[in-house]
């Protein structure tokens, strides 16, 4: 296959590239304060919400949460009751099990609704999905993970839940590896966890092997996930070059059962064209640094 990186690079001149979107919110382990004194109660509240969100459909008891966060049980209970009152946390009829509340959904939906990069990519991926009828994604680098912001599912099979809003380790996904391959050594160190835990038996958990794979991605022009995230599925991805370093990438996931060399070439070529379209859409909107004051 011809690397779309080289074939399409002149579509977004370096002197015209606009600053890209801010990365998704960092995880609790990342530096949040930027030199400003941290408000401990606010940090604890955010950590509690993120812990509940990460548990997905597994409600937690007070003791589990307080122990996981190293927070006194009385303090944890007070925060939980306040968050429950305002709808950020919900509880069962007994008041002993806690989960993420509907206000978190409303905030997350607002993030997607107001992000112009998401809107630009979604319309392109919708058209691409209609053409190839495979599953396409837009992901954004957030700490050591990739967050799924857009998913256009194939009509050939039905998934019981949406992947939008889910986080997966960047090193185990084509989306993440496409973005990791564009980072320098300092950036790579920042976005790799201390341990590369396996998601499947095919996940690259050896750092030397992962670095060789990232070097191949830079040379080839696109990333491949060979059952490293989901057994039986191969994924192809390209980073979006409207930011440097890139924070967003698009991908296509295909079951191995219906994947042929010719189909792989069609997918990579189509992803390259979709990337060009998204990048040109970003340029045409004249987007500046998202969230920055316009001067």
From TrEMBL:
Keywords: DNA-binding, Transcription, Transcription regulation. Transmembrane segments: none annotated. The keyword Disulfide bond does not apply. Residues 1-37 are annotated as: Disordered. Residues 1-14 have a biased composition (Basic and acidic residues). The keyword DNA-binding applies. It comes from the Bacteria. Residues 103-284 form the IclR-ED domain. Residues 39-102 form the HTH iclR-type domain. This is IclR family transcriptional regulator.
């Amino acid at each position: 296959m011809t690397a779309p990186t080289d074939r399409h690079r002149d579509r977004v001149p370096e002197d015209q590239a606009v600053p890209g979107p801010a990365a998704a919110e960092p995880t609790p382990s990342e530096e949040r304060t930027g030199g400003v004194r941290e408000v401990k109660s606010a940090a604890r509240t955010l950590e509690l919400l993120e812990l509940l969100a990460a548990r997905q459909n597994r409600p937690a008891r007070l003791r589990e949460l307080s122990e996981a966060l190293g927070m006194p049980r009385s303090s944890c209970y007070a925060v939980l009751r306040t968050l429950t009152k305002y709808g950020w946390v919900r509880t069962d009829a007994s008041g002993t099990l806690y989960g993420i509340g509907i206000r978190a959904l409303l905030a997350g939906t607002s993030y997607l609704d107001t992000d112009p990069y998401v809107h630009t990519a979604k319309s392109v991926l919708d058209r691409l999905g209609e053409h190839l009828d495979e599953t396409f994604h837009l992901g954004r680098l957030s700490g050591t993970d990739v967050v799924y912001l857009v998913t256009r599912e194939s009509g050939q099979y039905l998934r019981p839940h949406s992947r939008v809003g889910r986080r997966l380790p960047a090193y185990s996904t084509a989306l993440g590896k496409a973005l990791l391959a564009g980072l320098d050594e300092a950036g790579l160190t920042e976005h790799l966890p201390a341990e590369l835990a396996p998601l499947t038996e095919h996940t690259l958990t050896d750092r030397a092997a992962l670095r060789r794979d990232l070097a191949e991605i830079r040379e080839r022009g696109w990333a491949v996930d060979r059952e490293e995230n989901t057994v039986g599925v191969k994924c192809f991805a390209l980073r979006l070059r409207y930011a440097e370093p890139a924070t967003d990438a698009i991908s296509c996931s295909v079951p191995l059962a219906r994947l042929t060399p010719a189909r792989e070439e069609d997918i990579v070529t189509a992803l390259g064209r979709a990337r060009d379209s998204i990048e040109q859409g970003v340029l045409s909107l004249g987007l500046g640094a998202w969230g920055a004051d316009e001067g």
